[in-house]
Design goal:
seven-stranded mixed β-sheet, alpha/beta, about 35% helix
Length: about 650
């Protein structure tokens, strides 16, 4: 009987070991799939061989495994221009030693879940577009040797928990927006007994206890003084801050005005917490040895049985669904989405509640536009302006963590636009009961340019001079988006539906379609980003949003053609508008055939300028394509839209009719 019991116990222990190993492997593959799912732009196709149905990731680009291929130990994808988010599931790759994602376009926050990577030695997230604070939990990466977070948009204070990293030799935090003092223990603490420093939470808050050989804190908004224990570092490591030093160049007083208010004392854990922990440990250590042994044995057996049950359930689930969609909310994970909310990102943008928008838009009955991705409502705020509220069409069960952060990023991106020829974002709405994600814009009362060109019978409202004003206004808006803000902003699908007209027919560029590719990717679970806007980007070109200014310039040419001709960008009879127009663009004798037949008069000199602009924009030679600044200058300097010109044109038209 005893022999049978021993064999049973040994079997359970060996099965426990097997299950644990299998679970770790499953979690690591799942985490890598989550990483890929959170990337929505991969311009160099680096992740093209990441087969999400493959259970062995060791041959995937950028992934390195142990010699026995049982654990992932390195993820290195640098300079690939990946755009997306850092999936918190990366923290499940338990044996990961190096996480190197340098030189991409990753956005959002640094997940606190990375603290689970106890074997991590290198963390390099430099030169991305990450925001939010540095998680305090990074202080739990006890084996870390190198941390590089340079050239991001990180905010908040330096977490004092970084002092826990006793093996840390290289720390690069330059070119962020970090505030507060450089945490360091006082001189007396530094010279005191090292054992006491490690034992006391009150004293373990500074870099003085670290083994830093290389560190760069430059070009932030740090305040205070340089800690004496870090004076061995080059002085350039502290330049471009708001520090009280004379021999290192710092920011101006104006730039440091906000940072000085942030100066204060680092937050430390109260001493009573340390005492409580000490009491707890003391009580735990007083248990009899035999009782402790029984507890361990019982816990091991119960844990084994539980893990076997979980493993069986997972196996059954995997048979039912071969594709894993990470970050999906289940009934037991309704609060999970809060992990991905960056409160700093939208702190300056107004948040509307659903009820006030419902009242303004007449119970959401006043629909003025719709697409498979969104519905546009018109409304009037109480005592405020007329609004256009765009509601995203997506079910709550399809809304993921990276979509939430993308929504926030897009709202923040739109909120920074401030020009007379761009739509003004007034705010947003984010609620979960009922599920709502909406953008609120200032309403342009004359509808879209598309409606005036193709829907209204009274198309004569758009005279030649008015069309020239609209073209120049669009050019000014694009010039602002491309050259006057940093980073540049491009319209996802630039066409006549993206141009709204005010009461005096001034154009406003509005980007309602920026959600299309990300929503399509979420619904189809595809591995690449697609675009259905044939006229919004040049042939064979798909660039990241912030880099696709040439795509906008090509789309501008198509839009200008649409405005002067009154023809759609594509029709079944004539094909693409650009192909039809090529025969007339460079031939002065037939150039007038491009003009809308409803127009009774037009400016021939204006037409020549317009044709020249279009020809430059659609040239297949990338060296010929001008910038929007150059195009705007051409249009403004060579086209006269004054009232006298319009009256002169009308006089010539009347004279022609009378003869």
């Amino acid at each position: 009987m005893k022999l049978s019991t021993s064999f049973l116990f040994m079997g359970l222990v060996s099965m426990f070991s097997f299950v644990s190993s299998a679970m770790v492997a499953t979690n690591e593959v799942w985490a890598l799939k989550a990483f890929k799912e959170a990337v929505y732009e991969d311009p160099h196709k680096v992740l093209s061989n990441w087969n999400t149905l493959d259970s062995d990731p060791c041959d995937w680009n950028g992934v390195s495994c142990t010699g026995t291929r049982d654990h992932v130990i390195k993820l290195n994808i640098s300079g690939a221009l990946l755009r997306g988010f850092l999936a918190p599931e990366i923290g499940k790759i338990t044996y990961l030693q190096e996480l190197i994602l340098h030189g991409n376009n990753l956005i959002g926050i640094i997940p606190k879940e990375l603290n689970a990577l106890k074997s991590l030695k290198v963390l390099d997230l430099g030169k991305n577009q990450l925001s939010g604070p540095i998680p305090r939990e990074i202080g739990n990466l006890t084996e870390i040797v190198k941390i590089n977070l340079q050239s991001n948009g990180l905010t908040g204070r330096l977490p004092p928990e970084l002092a826990n990293l006793k093996y840390l030799q290289e720390l690069r935090l330059d070119r962020n927006k970090l505030e507060g003092p450089v945490p360091a223990a006082s001189t007396s603490n530094f010279s005191s007994n090292m054992h006491e420093m490690y034992a006391s939470n009150a004293n373990s808050t500074g870099f003085c206890r670290s083994s830093l050989k290389v560190a760069d804190f430059s070009y932030n908004f740090l305040v205070g003084s340089i800690p004496k224990c870090l004076e061995y570092l080059p002085r350039t490591s502290f330049q471009g801050n708001c520090l009280h030093v004379k021999d290192v160049k710092q920011r101006t007083k104006v730039q440091c005005a906000g940072a000085s208010a942030a100066q204060g004392h680092p937050v430390v854990k109260p001493k009573h917490q340390s005492k409580a922990e000490h009491v707890s440990k003391h009580q735990g250590g007083s248990k009899p040895a035999w009782l402790l042994a029984i507890e361990i044995a019982t816990g091991t057996m119960v844990g084994s049985l539980i893990l076997i049950g979980i493993f069986t359930a997972v196996q059954r689930c995997n048979k039912k669904a071969s594709i894993i969609i990470p970050w999906k909310k289940s009934s037991s994970e309704k609060e999970q989405i809060s992990v991905y909310i960056d409160s700093e990102m939208l702190k300056d943008v107004r948040r509307y509640n659903r009820q006030e928008l419902e009242v303004a838009c007449e119970d959401f009955s006043n629909i003025i536009g719709s697409s498979p991705d969104s519905v546009v409502y018109k409304g009037t705020m109480k005592g405020g302006p007329e609004i256009a509220a765009i509601s995203l069409c997506i079910k709550e069960e399809n809304w993921t963590g990276h979509l939430e952060l993308y929504f926030q990023r897009e709202v923040a991106d739109l909120a920074r636009l401030n020009h007379e020829n761009t739509g003004k974002l007034l705010g947003y709405c984010r609620e979960n009961a009922p599920f709502t994600r909406m953008l609120v814009f200032d309403y342009a009362s004359n509808g879209t340019l598309y409606e005036h060109l193709h829907c209204y019978e009274e198309g004569f409202q758009l005279s030649w001079t008015r069309r020239m004003k609209i073209i120049i206004g669009i050019a000014r808006g694009l010039k602002y988006l491309h050259t006057e803000i940093d980073p540049p902003f491009t319209i996802s699908e630039l066409n006549s539906n993206a141009v709204y007209l005010t009461e005096d027919f001034s154009p406003k560029l509005v980007d309602f379609e920026s959600w299309k590719t990300i929503l399509e990717r979420s619904e189809k679970n595809s591995g690449s980003v697609s675009s259905q806007g044939g006229v919004s980007i040049p042939p064979n070109s798909l660039r990241a949003r912030y880099l696709d200014t040439k795509g906008n310039i090509y789309a501008f040419a198509v839009l200008v053609l649409e405005i002067i001709s009154g023809r759609s960008p594509y029709c079944q009879d004539r094909g693409y508008l650009v192909d039809w127009a090529r025969d007339y663009l460079e031939m002065p004798e037939v150039m007038s055939y491009l003009v809308d037949s409803e127009l009774k008069h037009f400016g021939y000199d204006d037409l020549k300028v317009i044709c020249e602009v279009i020809t430059l924009c659609i040239s297949p030679d990338p060296n010929v394509c001008p910038s929007m600044q150059e195009l705007c200058s051409m249009l403004e300097s060579r086209i006269d839209t004054s009232i006298s010109v319009e009256l002169k044109s009308l006089a010539w038209a009347e004279l022609a009719l009378s003869t």
